[in-house]
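Vitamin uptake transporter: structure, please.
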Amino acid sequence: MPKGSATALYILSIAFINWLLVLLPPIMIGNTAIPPVMLVVGFVFVFRDFAQREIGHWVLLAMVAGGALSFFTASADVAVASMTAFVVSETIDWLVFSLTKRPLAQRILFSSAAAVPIDTVIMLSLIGMFDWLAVVIVSLMKMIGALCFWWVLRRRDNDAVPPATATA
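Here you go.
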């Protein structure tokens, strides 16, 4: 992957997700409205982790850049809600990812698990769609993105370990 591509993907994904949030109407699950784009936001947390591996702690500026770009792709209300949720949750994600001295796959999973529910509560509250069922559904769907990357990285790590050779 070319240098800077994870960071660019991270910045653009923030603006793209916010654009889709304005564009796509909520779907109803029972009496609960769910913004459909929220079901893929989990990938943004993982993109942040890869961007941090690429540019270090400068990833915090990339977060701000994505939020600023959102003012051009989404409504001001969504951009402000997104930036607020991202500043809080992505800072938690950044801290867990930075301070946890574990393999990459585990850091991605742990940092997402800590940040995703907080992001969901803040974002749904600020866009006027807070509902505990929505928080649970959206948080679980966001974690699927992190689990997908965790699974791929675990398989890659396991494939990289040479099999034990039997000695007679």
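Notes: Helices lie at 5-23, 42-55, 59-73, 76-99, 104-126, 132-160.
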